[in-house]
Amino acid sequence: MEILRSPREIAQMRKAGLLVWEAFQLIRDMVRPGVTTGQINAVIAGFFAQHGAEPLFLNYPNSVEGGPPFPAVTCISVNREVVHGIPGKRQLAEADIVSIDTGCRLGGWCGDAAATLPVGRVHPDTLRLVEVTRDVLHLAIDRVGRAKWWSEVAEEMQKFVRGAGFSVVEDFVGHGIGRKMHEDPQVPNFVKRGFRRGRHDFRLVPGLVIAVEPMVNFGGKEVRMAADQWTQVTADGRPSAHFEHTIALTESGPLVLTAGPNGESW
Asked: How many C-beta neighbours within 10 Å does residue 227 have?
């Protein structure tokens, strides 16, 4: 059952969301050849600490029994890595794409966002994958204020991605968010048989706050776990992109809590 938030609570969540947006502004110019994923993580970790914010990902429990907790403040996934990449000594290279996902809790409320950024000059086909993934998130933001059920939005997202010739990852979905990073409801970017208006669907009503995060693969939708028990990679080795915003539904329409002061994204 989804939890509805008051305008006052949404205003508190906006503070966390804005801090996440500011963190992305710090590392945008860092994304260049030769920079390590660990360096990017360190900058965001320091920024959250400076502002008294609790990083949401650090020490997050592993879903694999006996698996290690997540060891970093950001998930940084490069090229074929879909999500949950562990930052470290890997250097970014020309023509890579890098997905950066992070979140924090500030004053007891959470914000969560992700973006995929090109490293130098990227192949046009790969750049199109990034653009389609970004655009399908903005499509969802636009539609969420006009639809009555989430399945209506998810169906349009799925059609948009497939129409571009790419695949929607189905192993991972968005989520409700509030005092905890992961709350009900689950927020898929696709529609499977029985989802529409079924027990897993949910109404789009004022007070709902969700993290919408499409993950789009260049090739097939299948993913697998790497040996580190966290990083998820495409099964066919082709690149993947990931974008995410925390979005609140208000009486006047959707409010992107992880956007900039004037509503700007990354």
From this structure: 6
φ, ψ of residue 162 to 5 degrees: the values are: -65, -35
Residue 88, number of CB atoms within 10 A of its CB: 14
Query: Residue 185: helix, strand or coil by DSSP?
Result: strand
Distance CA 209, CA 2 (A): 9
Q: Which domains does the chain have, with CATH numbers?
A: 7-256 (3.90.230.10)
What are the mean pLDDT values of the chain's consecutive 10-residue runs (266 residues total)? 93 98 96 98 98 98 95 98 98 98 98 98 98 98 96 97 98 98 96 70 96 98 97 98 98 97 87
